[in-house]
Design goal:
By secondary structure, the protein is an alpha+beta fold. It is built from nine helices and 14 strands. The structure holds ligand DP6.
């Protein structure tokens, strides 16, 4: 690893895709170092991406962060500056970071995952750090736990370190994006920002839920079973486990005090619709993150039918279809 960062004034652009957890991360064993309490397994999604450009500028008096064409200040911007400091130290020129998401930010469509994966990738290139994917994943994790997985394409697993150094907490690829064509349909029921972000939600859950230890203890087996489902391309098993992990996470969030409920009426309608389809023999399973959107995992030949069933619901404004997507990469001009 190059410990002498070069501060390139030329703009560097990186792309990273969002990912959906098939086995969920919820809870930290260190809040300070952002070390997850449970491992996770994810699918990187081709249709949801962030493009981030970075450029160092000696003329700037402070860092500049632009998100979807708007200048962002406050906590969100401070987090970007802190992340740049983490990667290359505080003795650096000010940086201009421009980020564009092709999906609604902060609405439970995992924007922080693609954001920090893209930023880590762009910083690595802009400063000629020469970091490998494992190190990029370690850095991305410190921006957002789920971002560690978006460094990789296809199916990824987040490892848990056996100490609190953080050196063992990174993701690795299980299978690349060409391994198995499964589909994820995200039913957008609300595009407004969420009420309780995932960080706050999981911390409150860990502190107050009487079921939190059971959640942590049951996770390794979920991960083992999910890896077996992937290895055997057993779709029913994958779907059943993914739905169970999501429901267990949301049940856990409900058991926090005060309760955390990410669902809206249209979320419940979407879930019931998908369960209805499944009763008719269609292989479709739901998963949800820290927001009201319902995401449906299915196989390519059923994607249209699921999409049509969801878009008919009055509370669903849009359905985004995604396939397995690539890992983070640099965009050449
Ligand atoms: C429900 O990665 O956003 O999407 O590490 O605090 O930034 P922080 O949390 P974040 O949490 C993701 C939670 C989840 C499940 C998952 O992606 O595994």
């Amino acid at each position: 690893m190059n410990i002498n960062p070069q501060f390139n004034s030329k703009q560097v652009k990186a792309v990273a895709h969002a990912n959906i957890a098939l086995v969920k991360y919820w809870g930290k064993r260190s809040v300070e170092k952002n070390l997850p309490a449970v491992g996770s397994v994810s699918l990187t999604l081709d249709a949801l991406k962030t493009i981030t450009s970075v450029a160092f500028d000696e003329e700037l008096h402070s860092d500049v962060f632009i998100l979807n064409d708007d200048v962002v200040t406050g906590k969100q911007a401070d987090k970007i500056s802190a992340f740049a400091d983490l990667m290359v130290g505080t003795e650096r020129p000010k940086i201009r970071v421009e980020s564009d998401n092709n999906f609604p930010t902060g609405a439970g469509l995992a924007s922080s995952a693609s954001a920090f994966a893209a930023l880590a990738k762009a910083m690595n290139e802009a400063c000629s750090l020469g970091l490998d994917d494992k190190m990029l994943s370690i850095f991305a994790r410190q921006g957002s736990g789920s971002a560690a997985r978006s460094i990789f394409g296809g199916f990824a697993e987040m490892n848990l370190g056996d100490d609190d150094s953080g050196n063992g907490d990174y993701a690795h690829q299980l299978h690349d994006e060409n391994y198995w064509d499964i589909r994820l349909l995200a039913a957008v029921v609300s595009t407004g920002p969420k009420e309780i972000g995932s960080t706050e939600g999981m911390n409150r859950t860990a502190e107050t839920s009487p079921f939190y230890n059971a959640w942590v203890q049951s996770s390794p087996n979920d991960i083992k079973e999910m890896k077996a489902a992937l290895a055997h391309k057993d779709f029913e098993k994958l779907g059943t486990l993914a739905e169970h992990s999501a429901m267990k996470m949301h049940g856990l969030a409900l058991s926090a005090n005060p309760s955390i409920l990410y669902w809206q009426a249209a979320s419940l309608e979407s879930i019931q619709r998908v369960w209805g389809l499944r009763k008719q023999g269609l292989p479709a399973y739901i998963t949800m993150d820290a927001g009201p959107q319902v995401k449906v995992i299915t196989l390519p030949q059923y994607a249209n039918e699921v999409k049509n069933a969801l878009i008919e619901l009055p509370g669903v404004s849009n359905v985004i279809e995604a396939k397995p997507g690539p890992g983070a990469y640099i965009l050449k001009d």
